[in-house]
Amino acid sequence: MKVRTEKLIFDESIKLESGSTLSSFELMIETYGELNQSKDNAVLVCHAFSGNHHAAGIKTEEGKPGWWDQIIGDGETIDTSKYFVVSVNNLGGCDGSSGPISISPETDQVYGASFPEVSVKDWVNAQKALLEYLEIPAWEMVAGGSLGGMQALQWSISYPNLIKKAAIIAASSKISSQNIALNEVAREIIRKDENFAGGDYHLQNIKPKKGLKAARMLGHITYLSEANMRKRFGRKLQSPETKIDDEVSYEVENYLQYKGEQFAETFDANSYILMTKAMDSFDPAKDFEQDLVKCFKQIKAKLFIASFNSDWLFPKEYGKDIQLSAIKAGVRSSYVELEGDYGHDSFLFHSDEYAVGLKNFLESNE
Amino acid sequence: MNKSLETIVTDWVADNSKVIDFGCGDGSLLKSLADSKSIIGYGVENDPNEIHGCIKNGISVVQQDIDQGLSEYKNMDFDMAIMASSIQCLRKPKEALQNILEVANQCVITLPNFGNWELRTGLLKGKMPSSTKLPAKWYETKNVHMCTIADFEELCATENFNILKKVYLNRRGNTSWLTDYLPNLFAAEAVYLLGK
Questions:
Q1: What gap in Å lies between CA A54 and CA A45, rounded to an integer?
Q2: pLDDT of B47-56, one tens digit each?
Q3: ipTM
Q4: What is the pTM of this model?
């Protein structure tokens, strides 16, 4: 599999949904496989809230597999020997694309808290600029799970002629007040860290790691299913030699502590806030008098909607609702309910039914 | 899928119709209607292997147990609803028929005729009937509400389900003077176009 990682500079302004404008912007991208001569084999994969451009393969410097490594690769579900896969770190992220930790071209200072609010629509608009830069006439498919699935759905609404298929996995056409509530608790934990400094912690060379860690620990629980946690950890006690902290008793505590700490080392607190806010505000029907069917009448792409039975964060009703509105609007669309062992995170992992469904969809004729 | 069912439905469906097929299998009927009549079709199916077949064929499909959600598809502007060889598998076939007639104004229902002579002979021998078209043993059959052509048409009359068209087929899937003369005895299958 041919892998290319690149930072692209877009010397053009982008107007954001919030009303702010970025006079220029950068996108960190990674691509897998090669664009064919007829340029009709390009697939865009969109990351969920804490993901980045590194979707597949092993990054040599960190030895870290990409977030969709089980799905993307030669001979895999999204077969890179046939398809040219493009993955991009979204605006507001913290892995190379313009975001709170990058330097503002206007002030020559780190953005920090001043980086404007971003939305799913803004990301799709930036990805459209990327499509043009790559000189690809249209995406054969845009795919993603969770917040990534929302981008795939937004693509089909915003640019109906530039996308042939959208795979919307473990996603929603808008999240519930319970989802928003969980996001707000996480944000509050971060904001109340004494090192947060109103979001301008970079000025003092400090980081709100404690808050970020606790927020991630909470988030992590919501990504897993109860059954999965029971199977994986049960009530097993952590052995004293491997305890991350003296406070820890159970394996599940140790696991969350470890994952939270790891996350707080690499992720940016302002990005966390921006990404969760983008998730909260996603609601494509708002441009169509809150009528999702009217909104979906824009769509020309074929949709593949998948939900997981074990996902309690984005329960399967979310996917079914998208499907029913799509049918009402006359959009060609399929909906499958998958078992999934991992709760909301199931979209990240290869399972047979899931892989066959997605592969059949991608490789089916128009 | 039965070739003649395909021919019959192709005759009955108007060009560019919006069609839903409950128990669509691998979607081959919808595919054929899309090719010949440019319909926009949706299948409803609960068997993962059949669903994979639909998606591979480029047919829109919803994973769902038909027993549970016919009524979700009301008010979706369907011109035709199809339920081929599934009505006898449902827990509440009468309610299902009422619901499907609210999904679309025209509904195609196919029915395996348990009054067919081959099945009657089986019962005469003192065994639960089986035939080439209905080979399953009593303990493994999915059919929980078996009926004859006479039973079904009686239900339609009492419930005011309007039979707009009907075709009786023998076990080879053909019409014949015998099936038309004594359908309840000679037809293996009946295909109806119902309306309200």
A1: 10
A2: 999 999 999 9
A3: 0.91
A4: 0.94
